[in-house]
Specification:
Length: about 90
């Protein structure tokens, strides 16, 4: 599911910022460039609208990123699609 998430994010114009075989995906969007506060707003809105739970982080202590981790073995492609669609909806309103 981590690989599927990476593919879906790239298809929707997101930037995947890490390469790992683990299902931990760090990503950003061009809309966030120089506006890291929008990342926090995205995380908050996803949670408040009960679309998904992701977090924000800093890669190597510098680059701001959103982070999603697939931990449930029942996660299906439709769950990943819901996250990516939710992200798209939220950033379109920012």
């Amino acid at each position: 599911m981590g690989d599927y998430l990476r593919c879906r994010l790239l298809e929707d114009g997101w930037q995947v910022l890490n390469q790992t075989p683990l299902p931990v995906v760090c990503f950003s969007h061009p809309k966030f460039e120089h506006k890291a506060t929008l990342m926090g707003e995205t995380v908050t809105r996803l949670r408040e609208e009960q679309l998904a739970w992701i977090s924000k982080t800093r890669l190597r202590g510098e680059q701001a990123a959103l982070r999603a981790c697939v931990t449930n073995f029942n996660t299906a492609p439709r769950d990943v699609d819901q996250l990516v669609d939710g992200l798209k909806a939220v950033i379109s309103r920012l």
